Each structure stands twice: as structure tokens, then as C-alpha cells.
């Protein structure tokens, strides 16, 4: 098509519009267009995801899928195997820092929900899940790693420590909703997720020390004294002292001049970061300190509205960070290494989620006052996720590497993906059934009490 050659003013206007339309509708290379505007496409996709999960949350909560499963599928769809929009390949150091922040916010949120007095009876489920089940899980996975994967014992224990923690981020559907929720199952899963992300650390250090020196007799006393005893004690102590000091300062300053309402909730982030950094500086476990800090903060503020505002604030941050982390995980998955490590990865995932966790839970929760249904659900909801990713990247920054590191990485990725899929599909229907089961039991109890003379 050619533009005609005319001299009148009206024809010159027509000529300009004609040539402009040709330049606009000229065929464009789609790949080149996406490359040129990749950042804008990433913002567009993130905005659409946030809009979708927000406006569709009323339907999503009724479906047999979790938010994490949605983010994972979208991340895979945006990877080079799909639309090729997410192309970042961050190193282990960046991923360690990202997952660290996600876990910290989630641990503080879990601590804010703790609503029990500090007695052994009130925390009986947590004591069994942490004191018995977690070490059992670590050593059971280590046995699989040593005899099936042919890892050295230290490396096998490192794999067990990476996969042992249940996840406080991705398991939000089965955890406490708020401090007023008194359900024993939800309390046990929430407190377990909050504590085992910290208490798996000694075993991670055990594996890292083994990578540095397989003569364990040379460093074992230091591991017991520093990594086991001192670091846990320091985490507990700092988790109490730091938030109390910050809350005391907050109260005194609020009496003199109230802070801006828009800034008030940022005190929660202050408690998280100051507690974590101060604890790590004295070689304590910052994860434990932040979880304990959440508990102390929840008990230190007497205004229930302030406690609820802090919980809602941290949960919103947690949800945003969860979107970023799981999208990134989905985009990092690659077919070739997954195919190469599919068999060992699926074997480890199946043994961990279908054998070790359920059987270990049944053994560790045995007793008069434990209900069978609750024990079975404790055994099923061993969700693996961001906590395992953090320990994996932390290990990469502290000596893990080579073929062994690659094998552990992809076995961990496969286990997390399996957990996200399986638990994401089953959590909603199982918890709906559990709530109906509890209601039926309450009605039967009320009926028997009514007819009793």
C-alpha cells in the first residue's frame, strides 16, 4: 500500500496519518518486544497475581488447593519452560537472605499466636513433636541418605537437618488463626513450625563441621558446648530481654508523645530485626530468639487491639514474601536436573512424608490423653517449605558444594514441590472434615452431659 502524493493541506494531514498507521501496525517481533519490556511485564504479572489471589480468596479457601500451590504453578508457567518472563538466576547468598527474612517474619507471627501458659502440660504436643519427633526424623532421613544415597554420615545428617523442619510459612492453612484459637492440633503444628526451624540448626552445624573435617572427635566437644548448649540458651535469653526492652521504650515514649498511627505497627519489624541481629552477634540462634520474642511481645502489650494489629501487619508481610519466594522457586526448577534426581528425590520425599513422619508421630504422641484423629493429622501435616530452603542455601554458603551439594539441592527441591502439591491439595478438605469432626464430638459431649442425672 502506497500513500498518494498530493499538495493540499488536507491531503498532507491524510498522508501523515496514513504513514503513521503503517508504522504502528508494522509486524513486531514478540520475543524482542517482551525482552525490551521485561521489567514491565514482571510488574504486570505480579500485579495480576496479587489481584487474582485477593479477589478470588473467597473461592480459593473453599477449593482443595493452597495459595503456595498456586504460586508454584504460576512460577513454573513464568519460567523459561513457559512464558519466560521470570529470568533471574540469583545466587545462593541472595536466596539465603531472602528465605531468612521470610522465615523470620513467619516465626514472629507464630510467636504472636501462642496462647498457652508456659507449662509442660500446656505444651505437651510441642514437647513431643520437637523433643522426640524432630531428632527421630533427622536420623531416619540420615539413614536413608547414608545407605540409599551413599552419603557420608555427616552429609546424611545435614540432609536430615535440612528436611526435618516443618514449615511455618506454607503451613498457614493448618495453623492457629489468632491467639483466641484454642485447638490442640493447630497449636501443636504452629508451635512445632516455630521451634523446629531453630532447633534443627545444631544438626545443620554438625553436618557443616563434618564437611570441614570428618574427624568428628576433634570438633564434637565444641559443637556440644557452642552450637548446642550456648546457642540455644542465648536464643532463649535474647528472645526475652530484647522485646521487653523495646516494649518498655515504646510505652515510655508513647506516654510522652503518641507515635503516628501509620508507623506504629513498624515496631513489630523493629523487634524482629533487633532481636535477630543482637542474638546472632553473640552466636545464639536468632530464629529461636525471634519466635520467643513474638511470645513475649504478645504478653507484654495489654491492649488487645495493638496485639491484633501487630499480628495482621506481620501476616501481610509474610504473605507478600511467600508470593515472591514460591514464584521464584517455581521459576528455578529445571527439567534436566529434576529428571536426573527424580528417583532419589521422590524416594526421599515418599519415605519422609509417608513413612517417617506418620509412623514417628504415632510413636512420639503415644499416651492416654492423645486422640487418634489428632495424632494421625499431626503425622500427615509435616509440610516442608521455606525453612528447608533456608537451611539448604545456608549450607551452600558454608562449604556444601560439588556433586553432593547438587544432589542435596535437587532432592530438597523435589521434596518441597511434592509437599506443596500433596499438602496443598489435601489441607483444605482434611481440615474441613476435622472441624466437622470436632463439632460432632462437641454435640455428643453436650448431649451426654444434658441427659446425665
Description:
The chain is mostly helical and 453 residues long. The chain has one domain: Na+/H+ antiporter like fold (Up-down Bundle), CATH 1.20.1530.20. The chain contains 20 helices and no strands. The chain starts with 8 loop residues before the first helix and ends with a helix.
Ranges with pLDDT <50 over ≥5 residues? Answer: none
Q: What is the level 1 CATH name?
A: Mainly Alpha
The helix-and-strand class reads mainly alpha
Rg (C-alpha, Å): 26 Å
- Into how many domains do the coordinates divide? 1
Q: What order do the helices and strands follow?
A: HHHHHHHHHHHHHHHHHHHH
CATH topology: Na+/H+ antiporter like fold
For the structure shown, list the relevant keywords:
single chain, 0% strand, globular, Na+/H+ antiporter like fold
Q: How is the secondary structure organized here?
A:
Elements: H1 9-24, H2 30-36, H3 38-55, H4 57-60, H5 67-77, H6 92-113, H7 124-147, H8 153-163, H9 184-199, H10 201-212, H11 216-256, H12 261-264, H13 266-281, H14 286-300, H15 304-332, H16 335-340, H17 342-364, H18 372-380, H19 386-396, H20 402-451
